[in-house]
Design brief:
Elements (H helix, E strand, L loop, with lengths): L1 H20 L13 E3 L1 E24 L4 E6 L6 E2 L4 E5 L2 H37 L4 H34 L1 E3 L4 E6 L6 E2 L4 E18 L11 E6 L7 E8 L9 E8 L11 E17 L4 E3 L2 E8 L2 E13 L2 E6 L6 E3 L14
Antiparallel strand pairs: 1-18, 2-9, 2-13, 3-5, 3-8, 4-7, 5-6, 7-9, 9-12, 10-11, 10-13, 11-12, 13-17, 14-15, 15-16, 15-18, 16-17
Helix pairs in contact: 2-3
């Protein structure tokens, strides 16, 4: 008689426990958040961009002569002045050719002098009627032939002199040797590359600007940048050259800035992260403390209807303790200026 009653009690207790477990969990209490309204300020608009430093001048000097290299007078990294001898090529065969050509010039001059003297005598004879016009013309032709022979000899001598001079490779401008491509004993041809020379002050910063933003880039605009190799240093330059066309494949425009480099801290070929200044504009700004990382993006919390709304934003230029918002939030909205790890999207705010 007692068992049914006990069973009924157990069933009742189970039902009561189940009813209690079906009750929804109480919502988390509202969180406290320090907020501020997004304001507007006039800030410098910047275009985040990457670029590569290149030399103002760069040339690969060739031997311009055939022969063995006698001396290499520079090393990689060496600074040289305009006219400095870089490489000396053995041009003894060209020197011999020059001597022969100069002797031919001297011989041609002697022959021309004798021919002209004879021509003057024939001029006098034909005037007196002592010789025929045909004999006179023949002698005149000989004079002209000797003059042509002298001119040919001079041209050969000039060419030989150039070949001798080409054996000495000189710097066409002051710069830095970045490559020395030959050593003493190497045999070179006129087209053989021997030295690479660059100008490192100033440098050029070559950048690519997206097509949609080319209207914001003007000659004379400021560019600030940090090389990957020197992330803690900030350098600057001025936009000077803008390409006249949009590249079809990449839909961008090449822009070059001139960068002072008197101390040589920057090197051609360095990759940089830059900010191209594109004028000023009134934009929404928030305290930098309000911004946090959202993966590879940046975000902030906006308070809307007493709840947190996480926004992914596009940042603009920094201005003191504030940072401009290019997109993702608007003026007047309330943002949390000190977000905490415990905050989450949709959380209720006091």
């Amino acid at each position: 008689m007692h068992k049914p009653a006990t069973l009924i009690c157990l069933i009742g207790l189970s039902a009561c426990h189940k009813a209690a477990s079906d009750q929804p969990a109480p919502p988390p209490p509202p969180i406290k958040a320090t907020t501020a309204a997004i304001t507007e300020h006039s800030v410098t608009r910047t275009i985040p961009i990457t670029g590569t430093l290149t030399a103002e001048l760069r040339t690969e000097l060739t031997a311009n002569a055939s022969g063995r290299v006698l001396q290499t007078l520079v090393e990689r990294g060496q600074r040289v002045e305009n006219g400095t001898v870089l490489v000396q090529v053995d041009v003894r065969s060209s020197t011999a050719s020059l001597a022969q050509a100069q002797a031919e010039v001297a011989s041609a001059r002697t022959k021309l002098a004798a021919a002209r003297a004879e021509c003057e005598r024939y001029d006098a004879l034909v005037a007196r009627g002592a010789i025929t016009r045909q004999e006179h013309d023949k002698q005149t032709a000989d004079c002209n032939q000797q003059l042509s022979a002298l001119n040919v000899s001079k041209a050969r001598a000039s060419s030989a002199a150039i070949a001798v001079g080409d054996g000495t490779v000189r710097a066409p401008f002051a710069g830095v040797v970045t490559e020395r491509l030959v050593s003493a004993g190497d045999y070179v041809q006129p087209t053989s590359k021997v030295v690479t020379l660059v100008v490192t002050n100033p440098l050029r910063l070559k950048m690519t600007v997206p097509e949609r933003r080319i209207g914001e880039v003007k000659e004379g605009a400021l560019v600030t940048f940090s090389p990957v190799a020197l992330p803690d240093k900030v350098f600057s330059g001025t936009v000077k050259y803008l390409s006249g066309e949009v590249r079809e494949q990449t839909r961008d425009v090449i822009v070059e800035a001139v960068v002072p480099n008197a101390d040589g801290a920057l090197l051609p070929g360095m990759f940089v992260s830059a900010s191209l200044h594109a004028g000023t504009r009134v934009m929404p700004v928030v305290p930098r403390s309000a911004v946090f990382a959202v993966g590879d993006d940046r975000g902030l919390y906006v308070v809307k209807d007493h709840r947190l709304e996480q926004r992914v934003v596009l940042l603009g230029a920094e201005a003191g303790d504030d940072v401009a918002i290019e997109a993702g939030a608007t003026t007047g909205e309330l943002v949390v200026i000190t977000p905490k790890p415990s905050m989450f999207n949709g959380a209720q705010v006091e």
